[in-house]
Design goal:
The structure is a single chain. By secondary structure, the protein is α/β, with parallel strands linked by helices. The chain has a single domain, classed as Rossmann fold, CATH 3.40.50. About 35% of the residues lie in helices and about 15% in strands. The protein contains eight helices and eight strands, in the order αβββαβαβαβααβαβα. The protein has helices spanning about 1-20, 85-90, 105-120, 140-150, 175-185, 190-195, 225-235, 260-270, and strands at about 25-30, 45-50, 60-65, 90-95, 135-140, 160-165, 210-215, 240-245. An eight-stranded mixed beta sheet has the order 1-2-4-3-5-6-7-8. Helix 3 (about 105-120) crosses helix 4. The longest helix has 20 residues, at about 1-20. It is globular. The two termini are about 30 Å apart.
């Protein structure tokens, strides 16, 4: 117990220190009219950029995609609350507010791809190595992250991926139905369901990945993440899978997740492995 309290104290200390050093600003993702309108006038795609102190910057960056079942976005616990953690390691954190699909997958996918291109376009100015830009996704945001990891062109493909309790499959009976219906529509074509089941899209070109789950997740079946890991492994893509014994779904950076100190150290260790 004393060791665990020490780990938690250290985790909170570097988060607090990082908050004092980071540089933050916000961009509208699209200049002018965004493609693939969802009909929601106030649903604007944006990125919030958190840069570490220039003296600590490693050149690494992550594009963070919050979850919310493609119905809303959990912007704080699965988005901006993660910036101090990454900034403390010298990693730039860019949080994507992607537009809701309303049954048209091209909407959030185009936002995710454009955000990756924006980061690389500003690599010099933001002290980022364009060949060391990863993606971090939670739940439905994990699905979106895995879509660009498996399907995007090289210009928009991340160099690594970290997926928390992700939605992976779009196959009825196995998928998270709300995410499926919001992303593809309730009467989606079987071809689209296969094309956006990202475990079916893994190739040797898919970037390395870390998948983090809770065994008792009753919202998105852990089999989603397990199957994705299995496909990464089968295609000789470097990958790691970690399943916590409990915690449910949607914990993100919420303090209620009792394994938070161990989880943060796990991510830090994995990132230091390459």
């Amino acid at each position: 117990m004393k060791v665990r309290k020490l780990i938690l104290s250290c985790a909170m200390l570097f988060v607090c220190c990082a908050m004092n050093a980071q540089k933050t600003f916000e961009y509208n993702l699209w200049n002018g009219t965004a493609p693939n309108s969802n009909g929601l006038a106030n649903d604007t795609a944006k990125v919030k950029v958190f840069l570490p102190d220039a003296k600590k910057a490693t050149g690494r960056a992550v594009l963070i995609m919050p979850g919310g079942g493609y119905e809303y976005l959990s912007m704080e616990p699965e988005g901006t609350d993660w910036a101090p953690f990454f900034n403390h390691m010298g990693v730039a954190a860019i949080v994507l507010k992607y537009r809701l699909p309303k049954g048209n997958p091209d909407i959030p996918v185009s936002d995710a791809e454009e955000a990756m291109k924006l980061i690389r376009k500003n690599a010099v100015q933001w002290h980022i190595n364009p060949n060391d830009v990863g993606v971090v996704g939670f739940s439905a945001g994990g699905h979106l992250a895995s879509v660009i990891a498996t399907k995007a062109s090289v210009a928009a493909r991340p160099n690594f991926q970290i997926l928390f309790y992700p939605v992976i499959t779009m196959i009825p009976g196995y998928t998270h139905q709300g995410s499926h219906d919001n992303f593809l529509g309730s009467s989606a074509r079987k071809k689209d369901e296969r094309d956006y089941s990202t475990d079916m899209q893994v190739s040797r070109n898919t970037p390395r990945g870390l998948v983090i789950l809770s065994d008792d997740d009753g919202t998105v079946a852990p089999a989603n993440g397990v199957n994705y890991y299995n496909e990464l492994y089968r295609h000789d893509v470097p990958a790691s899978l970690f399943v916590f014994p409990d915690g449910g779904h949607g914990w993100g950076m919420r303090p209620r997740f009792k394994y938070q100190p161990e989880m943060l150290l796990l991510i830090k260790s994995w990132l230091s492995s390459f």
